[in-house]
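pasting for the record
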Amino acid sequence: MPLASLGVTVFTIAIGLYLIRRFLLMTSRINWIFNITVAATVCIWLVQASGLWANLLRLRVPR
């Protein structure tokens, strides 16, 4: 996926997140959970889009 396309997608997600936080009233706890969920989902999506997901799954922690 081209870098410009990734940038536009992340920008669109950020604008959507801002609009949801601005116009939907949520308690601070629900808002925090929502932000963490969106951030984690976007990070995983970016790692998959960049092709690094398979390398991360093969990564092993030594004992």
